[in-house]
Amino acid sequence: MTAQKTSAWPLSLVYVALVVYASLYPFSDWRNQGIVPWAFLTAPLPKYWTGFDVAINVAGYGPLGFLLALSALRGGSRWRSAWAVTLATLAAALLSLSMEMLQSYLPTRVASNVDFGLNTLGAWLGAATAWSLEKLGAIDHWSRFRERWFVADAHGALVLLALWPVALLFPAPVPLGLGQVLERLEAAVAEALADTPFLAWLPMREVELQPLIPGAELLCVMLGALIPCLLGFCVMRSARRRAAFLVVMMAAGIGVSALSAALSWGPSHAWAWLSLPVRVGLVAGLVLAVLLMPLPRRGCAALLLLALTVHLGLLNQAPTSAYFAQTLQTWEQGRFIRFHGLVQWLGWLWPYVTLVYVLVRLSRAEPKPKMPS
């Protein structure tokens, strides 16, 4: 069996990093309780539990088991493929065990043998799903589909596109506006340099940041919708396939934004973010993406670089509104604490990682086109 290129392995590494962050957030006030970290394994079962806790522990490790098993199945080794489900489950279980043991040193977390068991179950279900899909030929079908739709070196773009809807789950200050980090970064640096002479070295703004005017908000939404479309265009083979991809990405962006609003403010407010500038920005992004469909791949990459630069520049010239900061309390407290750690860094870093990816792609020579058989 020959090794096949797959995006499952880099996605699984990203997911491991997110699980670690979500499990150990907020990484503060570590203390030793005077007990061995694996004592939770023999602790009595909890008397009270909720369906939400069960579902989130199973679902949280399901994608990890799926991606790890898929990596083994597509890795080219018959031994690894034969033991894909077992290897993926054991790896995920070891990660869960490590996280639970480390949680015994965090005052805001409680190590739980039930969580460990549910996480392992979720990983096994995910790995078994990957194995079943492989046996049914669904994974091979996806591979052939990818060869027809995307160029051979599309793995990085596919990983970023898969992470984009997840990044949108974190409440954004502007719909589809990912990457607003300047104000938080400045505050973090100022706090770290407090009571030191280096604090005076920081550049000080002469005026405070002002909220975005409706026209700037419209432009941010338009670029936020256009950026993932251009990213896909960079690695797609034909304009006809780009049209179908465009519809899927626009629907995903709108749907996930509505889900984020529903999680933050309640289901009755799922569409409250669709103000007039936002609606016009979405339509403008759709129209512009349609006009750019015939553009060559390198031209799309160049425009994507420009769109990212303008988008981040506009977004980081606006302050984090008090209303937006208030909505984050719903995520940073209570049951959304698990989601908070998983998606907030994606929401902040996704456009910057995409920027680096596009720069690297533009710096390389375009490979000769190879049509799939």
TrEMBL record:
Keywords: Membrane, Transmembrane, Transmembrane helix
VanZ-like domain mapped to chain residues: 21-131
One Pfam family named in its UniProt record: VanZ
Signal peptide start-end: none
InterPro entries found in the cross-reference section: VanZ-like
Annotated TM spans: 7-28, 48-70, 82-102, 114-133, 154-174, 212-236, 243-265, 271-293, 300-319, 339-360
Protein name as annotated: VanZ family protein
Annotated source species: Variovorax terrae
Biological classification of the source: Bacteria, Pseudomonadati, Pseudomonadota, Betaproteobacteria, Burkholderiales
